[in-house]
Amino acid sequence: MSNKIFSGIRPSGKLHLGNYLGAIKNWIALQNDPQTEQAIYAVVDYHGITTPFDPKTYSKQVMDVILDYLAAGIDPEKSPLIRQSHVPEHTELAWIFNTITPVSWLERLPTYKEKIEETQGKYTHMGILDYPVLMAADILVYKSNLVPVGDDQKAHIDLTNEIGKKFNHMFGETFPAVKTIKAEGARIKSLQSPTKKMSKSGDEGIALTDDPDTIREKIKKAVTDSGKEITFDPENKPALSNLLTIYHLLSEKEIKTIEKDYAGKSYSDFKADLAEVVVNFLKPFQDKHRELSNNLDQVEAILKKSEEKARNLAAQTLQEVRKNIGVN
Ligand code: TYM
Prior knowledge:
The protein is mainly alpha-helical. It has 2 domains: 214 residues, HUPs (Rossmann fold); 82 residues, Tyrosyl-Transfer RNA Synthetase (Orthogonal Bundle), CATH 1.10.240.10. The chain has 13 helices and 5 strands. Helix 3 packs across helix 12 and helix 4 packs across helix 7. The site of ligand 1 has 26 residues, from strand 1, helix 1 and helix 7.
C-alpha cells in the first residue's frame, strides 16, 4: 500500500520537545519510509490566528517553525514544506466542508470545550469552533490517508473521517479514510504539572531553541514525585516517568537500563544528567537552526518551490470537489 502523509503545527510559540517527540520525529521517519508516496508538512498559520497573536512578529514566528522543521531533518525535496495560507485551496475546501458539518459535531470536541473553559468564554469566536473543519480540509485537500500527530489530536482526526464520509455519501466517493500514526512520545507532559501536556508556555516545556543554561534550569525546577527511587511508574510517579520517557527517547537507552544506571542515585543526579542528554541532543539541531536563519533567502526559495508543488496537488482535488458538488 502507498501512503499519503500530511501533518502540521500551529506557529503559536516556540516548538517544544513534545512537538518534536510527538510529531516531527515521526514525520522524518515517514518521509524515509518506502511506503510513503507523498508527504506534506505545514505551518498552519491560519490556525495560529485563532488565538491571540502579534501581527508585527507573526511572519517571523511562522518562519521560525519552518526553520525548526528544516533543522530537525525534514527534507523539502522529499516532503514539501508549506505555509498553510500560501495554499488557499485549504481554506476553500474548509468552506465547502462547513456547509456539511453540523455545529453539534464541533461543540462536542474536547479541545473546544477546554478552550471555552480556559478563557471563560472570551474566545468564543467562529474560528475557535471551526478550527477542526480547516484541519480536515488541510488533510483531505491532498487526499492524505495517514496523519502523524500526538494523542491530543485524535478527536480531530475522527472528525476528519466523519466529514470525509459525509461528503462521499452526499456527493460521491472523493476522499479516503484517514488514520493517525502515533509516536512513542505522543503524550509528553508539562515539567510543572505532569497531568497536563507539555505546552508552549513558560517553564512547562523545553523549547527546541532554548539555550543550555535555560534547559538546565528548567529541568532542575521540574516537579518530581514523592519517594526516592528512579523508577518508571506513570500512575504513582507521573513526573519522574515523564522525565524518564524524555531521557529514553532522546538517548535511545531502554527505560530499564536507565533505571539500573540510576539505582541508588538521587533525583537531582538523574535530573542533572537528563539536562545534559537534552542539551547534547539539541546542539546539532540548534547549530543548523542558526545557520538557516542566516540564509533566509534560500529558505524562502525552498518554500516557494514546495508551495507550488502543493498547490498543484490541492488544485486537482478542488477541481474534482467542485465538479462533484456542481459548482463549476
Ligand atoms: P499543535 O500545534 O498544538 O501541535 C502540533 C503537534 O505536536 C503534538 N503535540 C504533542 N505531542 C506530544 N506531547 C505533547 N505535549 C504535545 N503537544 C503537542 C500535537 O499532537 C501535534 O501533532 N490542530 C493541530 C494542528 C493542525 C494539524 C492539521 C495537524 C492543523 N491542521 C492537519 C495535523 C494535520 C494543532 O493544534 O497542533
